[in-house]
Write a structure and sequence with these properties.
Radius of gyration: 20 Å
Number of domains: 2
CATH topology of the largest domain: D-Maltodextrin-Binding Protein, domain 2
Number of strands: 17
CATH class of the largest domain: Alpha Beta
Oligomer: single chain
Largest sheet: 8 strands, mixed
CATH superfamily of the largest domain: Periplasmic binding protein-like II
Length: about 400
C-alpha cells in the first residue's frame, strides 16, 4: 500500500505548487544588499524552505519560478540571477554557454555525505551506471573532482503509475512496454514534453523489441523518426487519452479513472490513492528513469558568499527533509534530524511504499533524464506528432 497522502502534507501544504514567498511582517528586516536572486521551480521554491533560509542567514531569497529548465537557464541572459535550479545536462549546457561558473567543492563541508548514486555515479560498485546524463559522471569539471557544474539537491526514480483495479500485475512489476498494451487503449496518458515523452516512449518500444538504440537517451534522427511514426500510429488507433503536462492534470485524469496507466510521478500516485482510487507505482521491469535537480551558480552572480550559503543550506538537511515530505529523496544523508522517523522508514526504507527502499531503486537505474544533443529535432518531430 502506498504511503498515505497525509504524511506528505505535514509541512508543505499540497504536494505540488507552493505559494509565493513572503516574509512575515513580524520577522526581521533585511538589508537590500543581502538578497539572493533564485531561478527555480514550484517544487523547490517553497515557503517553508525559503523562510528557513532567510531566518538562518539574514539573506532575503527572491525566487523567480518556471517549470522549464531551459527558461530558467535563459533567464541568466536577461535578468539578475545568482542561483538556478538545474540538472546535470542543462548544467553542462549552461557551462558551455558560459552562463554558470564552477563550484568549489572544498566550500561544501557535507559533500562527502552525498548518496553514492550522485557522488560516484552508481549506488554500489556493481550497480549499472545507466544511460544518459549521469550526474556523478557529468558534474565534475576536473579529474581531481574539486570543481562541479552544479550541486545535486534532490532526486527520484520515475516509473509507471497504474490503477490496480483495472490493470493486473505480478509483485507490483510492470514493463515500460505496458504503456502501449492495446488492452488499455483510450486509457493511457503519456508525458507531453518533447524529449521526456520521447524517452518514455522509446523505453516502451525497446521493451517491446521494436527498437534497440545504442543510447536511448540520445536518439539519432532516424531513431526519432521511428519513435514518432509509432506514436502517430498509436494515436490514430485512439490509444492515448491525453498527453499530460501538469501534475494536477494527471491527478484529475487518474482520479476520475479516465486514465488507468501513465508514465507518472510518484507524488501523483500518492495524491490519487488518497482519493480512494487503487493507484500504485510499479517497479519498472527494465529499470527506472532517474533524475536529479540541484543548484548552479550564475556566472554573473552578485554575491558569491550568499550563493554558497544557499548550497550549504541545502546540503545541511532541512530542505532535504522538506522535499522528502513531498516524495523526493534528499541527495545528502543529513535529513533525518528534521524528518519524522516514520517518514524516514517509509520514504527511505520503503516500508509501505511502492517500489521498495531507496537502495532498491538506486540499484535499478536504467537511464537518466537527458537533454538530447539534437533537441531541436526532437521538438520538431514531437510537435509533428501532437499535430497529427
Amino acid at each position: 500500500m502506498p504511503i498515505k497522502r497525509r504524511h506528505l502534507l505535514a509541512a508543505a501544504g499540497a504536494s505540488t505548487l507552493a505559494a509565493p514567498f513572503v516574509l512575515s511582517s513580524g520577522g526581521p528586516s533585511f538589508a537590500q544588499d543581502k538578497q539572493l536572486n533564485l531561478a527555480g521551480a514550484s517544487y523547490d521554491m517553497r515557503d517553508a524552505i525559503l523562510q528557513e533560509f532567510a531566518k538562518r542567514t539574514n539573506i532575503t531569497p527572491r525566487p523567480w519560478v518556471s517549470p522549464s529548465t531551459q527558461a530558467r537557464v535563459d533567464r541568466i541572459r536577461t535578468a539578475p540571477v545568482d542561483i538556478i535550479t538545474v540538472d546535470a545536462p542543462f548544467a553542462a549546457y549552461a557551462m558551455n554557454e558560459k552562463l554558470l561558473q564552477p563550484i568549489d567543492i572544498s566550500r561544501l563541508p557535507n559533500w562527502s555525505k552525498l548518496h553514492p548514486l550522485l557522488k560516484d555515479g552508481r549506488a554500489t560498485p556493481t550497480a549499472p551506471l545507466g544511460f544518459g546524463a549521469n550526474p556523478g559522471r557529468m558534474m565534475y569539471l576536473d579529474e581531481a573532482r574539486t570543481k562541479a557544474s552544479f550541486v545535486p539537491a534532490f532526486f527520484q526514480m520515475d516509473s509507471i503509475g497504474y490503477n490496480a483495479g483495472k490493470i493486473p500485475t505480478e509483485n507490483n512489476t510492470l514493463s515500460w512496454g505496458e504503456l502501449f498494451n492495446p488492452k488499455w487503449r483510450g486509457k493511457v496518458a503519456l508525458y507531453g514534453i518533447d524529449w521526456l515523452g520521447m524517452l518514455d516512449a522509446a523505453m516502451g518500444m525497446r521493451a517491446l523489441g521494436l527498437i534497440n538504440p545504442p543510447d536511448i537517451s540520445n536518439l539519432s534522427e532516424k531513431e526519432v523518426d521511428t519513435v514518432v511514426a509509432f506514436l502517430k500510429d498509436k494515436k490514430k488507433e485512439g490509444h492515448f487519452r491525453a498527453m499530460w503536462k501538469a501534475y494536477g492534470e494527471l491527478v484529475n485524469l487518474m482520479a476520475s479513472e479516465e486514465v488507468w496507466i501513465a508514465d507518472a510521478w510518484w507524488p501523483v500516485v500518492v495524491e490519487v490513492a488518497g482519493k480512494g482510487i487503487p493507484m500504485h507505482y510499479a517497479v519498472a521491469k527494465e529499470g527506472y528513469r532517474a533524475w536529479c535537480n540541484g543548484y548552479g551558480i550564475a556566472a554573473n552572480a552578485k554575491n558569491l558568499d550568499a550563493c554558497y550559503e544557499w548550497l550549504n543550506f541545502w546540503m545541511e538537511g532541512f530542505p532535504g527533509a522538506r522535499q522528502s515530505e513531498i516524495g523526493y529523496f534528499s541527495t545528502a544523508n543529513t535529513y533525518e534530524k528534521y524528518l519524522d522517523p516514520k517518514l524516514v522508514t517509509e520514504v527511505y526504507g520503503g516500508v509501505g511504499r511502492d517500489g521498495g527502499s531507496l537502495e532498491d531503486r538506486a540499484n535499478r537505474v536504467f537511464v537518466w533524464n537527458t537533454r538530447p544533443k539534437n533537441l531541436e529535432y526532437y521538438t520538431e518531430k514531437w510537435n509533428e506528432f501532437l499535430a497529427a
